[in-house]
């Protein structure tokens, strides 16, 4: 028996994506969770006939830095409102020459260099060890890859994202070290991706390269990052408009069964 079609997709917008609904009418949800309040009220609207929930990761007006985001509340609030899949939009720095600013990337692995973030929902009582050997939903990755090619926004896929604590940028020594095992660098993927797995939600990250990290022998400048984001915002919106309706299909993955064999 095939899985039922997805009914609700969550979108977590990063820097440069304050909303995805434009002038369309939306309903706003203020959600309380056991972990506190999410970064912002959650907007609900429709994209191509699919119910979509949108959350601004950094809050209204971009006021929440990456190391202070309430990741548990964000993921739990989307799940409480019915999200069966989460697609995130993230800005990243490039650690490789071939991933120039403006490139869109689909990570399929990550390395965690964060230091002080709560990383799990399971802090007592029954113990769960959830597998993240393949941390991103293969169904979402395949669909995003196909849609990107169709709409002229191709992805560099099969890449590794190293997540650092922030909010500072890397030293030159750190950047050269990260280059030895990762392709892009950012500050927000972890623990978002692992929390989604713990809630048995499909998850994929649409990453936009905004700059070369400091290994490229000149410091990262916020001005450059913002300019690159603004130049590529229309491409990201076009991609999401085409992608979100396609995510309503019955999933082929096992993300919904992530907890089946995880309890001790």
What this model shows, in words?
This protein is of the alpha/beta class and about 260 residues long. It has a single domain, classed as Rossmann fold. About 25% of the residues lie in helices and about 25% in strands. It has 5 helices and 9 strands, in the order E-E-E-E-H-E-E-H-E-H-E-H-E-H. It has helices at about 70-80, 140-150, 170-180, 190-200, 220-245; strands at about 10-15, 25-30, 40-45, 50-55, 85-95, 105-115, 155-165, 185, 200-210. Strands 5-8-7-6-9 form a 5-stranded mixed beta barrel. The model has no long low-confidence stretch (mean pLDDT about 95).
Which features would summarize this protein structure in a list?
264 residues; alpha/beta; Rossmann fold; 5-stranded mixed barrel; 5 helices; 9 strands; 24% helix
